Description:
alpha+beta, 8-stranded mixed barrel, single chain, disordered C terminus, 18 strands
Amino acid sequence: MTDVLRYAAFTTDPTGGNPAGVVLDAAGLDAAAMQAIAADVGYSETAFLVPAGAGVYDVRYFAPTSEVPFCGHATVATAVALADRGAPATLLFRTQAGDVHVTTGVVDGQGSATLTSVEPYVELVSDETVEEALAALGWKVDDLDQAMPPMTAYAGARHLVLVVTRRERLAELDYDYDALLAVMSAHRWTTLQLVWREDALTHHARDPFPTGGVVEDPATGAAAAAYGAYLRSLGAVAAPARITLHQGDDMGRPSLLFVDIPAGDGGIRVTGTAVPIANRAAPAGR
């Protein structure tokens, strides 16, 4: 049996945020075993660590049905779990997407972590591709904010960013799972980052995740970092800037993500708290 810690990320309430599984020592587990454990846990992602030196870990992330190159909420959950067990405040996670630097601390008595993404990029997407995604969502072009063009954004994983004009459009989300899975798989998107801007620095998001076998992610740190790169590329914020991203509210799992966008090039920083869902390791897997 493999011990799996359970933490909720981007929240101070174990019933909120996005739950993640954390295996602190996965040495000896192959990919098939990791995938089986992640499926048993059933969270959006489970992180598997192999210690590689003081504060250095090789990390892999598995959703219930597939491996992903990088996961932000599981990174925050893992870093806080390590800090709770006396790990250094400065960590290096060697992921399939590249090196991710993480620092931990305490905010209002709660464990917190900040990750710095790999070098991000954004790509234009064709009108035809956008139409495919909109059809699967049951949305129309008129739902989109014309000042914020659809793009693919990457900060460790690929996400299609669609910004809408009304908060109600997010609240009404009810998509065709199989159709969206097909579109996302064809374009190698990990999630869709669906966003409404309340004001310049306060944004709301929802993230369908059928490629991982999950209808929706309550908090998506990788997509938040990618979104920060998207905003910087458009000049939609005056970098350096911090935006507050609300996610999970429509799912009953409110989540709070802080996205720091530096000027110029470089990784995007995402900060959040995390809290144990249980006070002890829980067995799962084989």
